[in-house]
Amino acid sequence: MYREPEELAQQAKEIVEKYSRREPTAKEKGTLPVGEMPTQKASERIHNMQEVALGYTVDEARAEAMRCLQCKAKPCIQGCPVAIDIPAFVGKVAEGDITGASDVIKESSLLPAICGRVCPQENQCQKFCTMGKIHNDVDASVAIGRIERFVADWCRENGKESLPSIAPATGKKVAVVGTGPASVSCAADLRKAGHEVVMFEALHKAGGVLVYGIPEFRLPKTIVAHEIDKLSQMGVKIHLDYLIGRTRTLKQLFEEDKFDAIFVGSGAGLPKFMEIPGENAVGVFSANEFLTRANLMKAYDKEQASTPLYPAKRVCVFGGGNVAMDSARMARRLGADVVDVIYRRTEVEMPARKEEVAHAKEEGINFMFLHAPVDIEFTQDKFQKVTGVKVITCKLGEPDASGRRSPVEIPGTEEIIPYDAVIVAIGNASNPLIKSTTPQIETNKRGNFIVQEETCETSMKGVYAGGDIVLGAATVILAMGQGRKAAKAMNEYLASK
Questions:
Q1: Of all helices (H) and strands (E), which one includes residue 93?
Q2: Residue 410 has what DSSP assignment?
Q3: Interaxial angle between packed helices 354-362 and 322-333, expressed in degrees from 0 to 180 and rounded to the nearest 10
Q4: What is the C-alpha separation between 263 and 486, in angstroms, rounded?
Q5: Run of H or E including 313
Q6: Which of 50, 92, 389, 438 has the fewest CB atoms within 10 Å, i.e. the most exposed one?
Q7: Taking a C-beta distance cutoff of 8 angstroms, is the pair 131, 142 a contact?
């Protein structure tokens, strides 16, 4: 249920005042309410691109941080791919030492403003929170991600940020392919070690999936630009419009440009389709294209953008992950009156974050669970525009290889639903370009780079990889974890050269 920001702020203020002179007991902590994040009203936010979640006030962040039990075992850290000392930074916030909290986070992560917004904390750090275990509800865990976001935002807005220290120059030069989360964390750790670091980005803006994939209303691009700028301030060089595999191959980077090591974080940018009739019709888009036009190229700004958006009043989205939620919610903001998400399983099996699904429902997105698209209908003239989708009802059968129950189509339940646009959001395959020009790189059947688990080293000596190019579609923080793991191994490799 929606609560006014003023009401939430007052609740937090009262908690902070109550415990201003002493720390709450463990029993009292268990009775403190979970600090909700204030949001825009759904009726207002569907008409703008501004951030949905408004962020904590100082009192709200402190009140939520006071719920932390400061467990000696620190179970939450085991759920953090970059191993942030969570109890330490949360404890600093509870005390009101925001810059101290930032210093703790900075030891492990260069992107707290981003991770605090888009990472699925409920499946990572908050999943292991003792407070959640006590209440037998992960939603009752300490809101670690929201507190992390607050710390980053407060320091940025109050000029309290500081850059990591840089070790003396080593004389070694490292290339980092891509500027997404894995590449950013890897580049930061390599630069801190004193190496010369050069990043190569294929697009005209740095940030990878953070700028082309995640909508403005979930992750403002000014924040991404600010975080990327920290790398430049640390001395990292970033080349834009530079396509590794075409502009330059890995072999050329080694032999002609004299790089000592390479990290590849080129992502999973090859969209998957369902291979059903009608997918080539006008009005069918991959989520990649749809979101890239809207996010990176700001096509929603019709007077300023140089790329058009396909006008549609009835839109359907295939898929049930976060990308499907982003696509559906973006379509709503672009003027669609009806947006349906078609998903073959039930809501329980949906991989999308619970918060994103809740926001989508608030914004009027419809969910057609246990339905699957059979084919896409389109006009039979020269334009071949989408007119609808034939769907079939499903039921859940036996578990598949992933452990989820497989959807089984029920014959005779087909129906045609009218739409004028379709967005396919069923996942992406790894970027195939580097592999095609570097046969020494071993990949699996899905095209993902095969790397050593502990070092992220590929089959090509001196080349390391991480993020979606290795994991497939993964989270920001998992990609960052691989970037840091690779950087550690690369530092050791460079020291031995």
A1: helix 86-95
A2: -
A3: 20
A4: 8
A5: none
A6: 50
A7: yes
Biggest CA–CA distance in the chain, Å, is 75
Which position has the token pair 């592999």? 435
Per this entry, what is the length of the chain? 497
- pTM of the predicted model, to two decimals? 0.92
- pLDDT tens for 434-487 read 888 999 999 998 889 999 999 999 999 999 999 999 998 778 889 999 999 999
Q: Are strands 371-378 and 421-424 parallel, antiparallel or unpaired?
A: unpaired
Distances (CA, A) of 381 to 280, 281, 282, 376, 432: 14, 11, 11, 15, 35
Contact 331, 339 (CB under 8 A): yes
User: Which two tokens mark 291?
Assistant: 């979101």
> Does residue 385 carry a pLDDT above 80?
yes
Q: Strands 428-429 and 338-343: what pairing?
A: unpaired
294 three-state secondary structure: helix
Q: Per-residue pLDDT tens for 112-156? A: 999 999 988 999 999 999 999 999 999 999 999 999 999 999 999
Mean pLDDT in residue range 317-324: 96
Q: Shortest CA distance to 87 belongs to which of 107, 105, 68?
A: 68
Write the secondary structure of 22-40 as one string of H (helix), E (strand) and C (coil).
CCCCHHHHHHCCCCCCCEC
- Determine if residue 492 is left, alpha or beta; phi over 0 gives left, psi from -120 to 50 gives alpha, anything else beta: alpha
Distance CA 37, CA 52 (A): 10
